[in-house]
Fold:
Amino acid sequence: MQYEIEKSPDNHTQRGKLRESCHDGAVDESSLRSLIEQIQSGETSADEAVAQLRRLPFVELPGDANAKIDHHRLLRQGLPEAVYGPGKSPEQCVAIVEELLTNGRGPVIVTRTTEAQRSALETAHAGMTEMGGVLTWRVPEVDHSHRIAVVTAGTADTPVADECAATLRSYGIAADRISDVGVAGLHRLLAEVDRIAEADIVIVIAGMEGALASVLGGLCAQPVIAVPTSVGYGAGLEGVTALLGMLASCAAGISVVGIDNGYGAAVSAMRIAQLRDS
Structure:
């Protein structure tokens, strides 16, 4: 990566610009020093420098890893990059996690892992925790300033809830798990309404027709994030019916993520939590 100065067309001001000439995974010391000097001299503003740094750097792993590791996602988005397990070999997972642990910051997450991936990663990298197929490293202490409820309609929705809760825990949030309170026995939900009302954010996970999201969307004042699952009989269409039902809900303001996307729901909740902190 190189740092260079470009003059503006009117030659009255100079602006600092970072240009990527190699993907070595780090803002090297000389480039960073040059950037700081330009800020000190007034040739580059702090805002301009931050805007450029938010785009850099990434690391292209050698060999057969076929991966570019986005180390600056934490700076851009406030949440680090996660690793999606499906389609990756155990060796690829090991190489990616090694780079994230060595040169990255924040928690390291691998979702939807296979037994072979879990075995390889546990052998290669100490300190791993596992929940519902989600592997994590560098998990912070629990932050009790945020209360996020993860509510499932049925026991069959548990794997998606596990992914959601494991992702939240990797960011320091211990989810309040409320299970098996779907509309087929609505009295079960009514017994938990006060507990749900204490949450800052509610994540609703439901298959079949997805009606639980509408019910909670009508009962709760806090943000509701709905996760359709692929649980259901033939007319459930592997989650499509729940997805469309949630999108068509008459309870205004419900946010809906993709089918079985517990990870995405957790990240959406964390973005809302970060916004509230700012």
DSSP finds eleven helices and 13 strands in the chain. Residues 1-28 have pLDDT under 50 and may be disordered. The two ends are 32 Å apart (CA to CA).
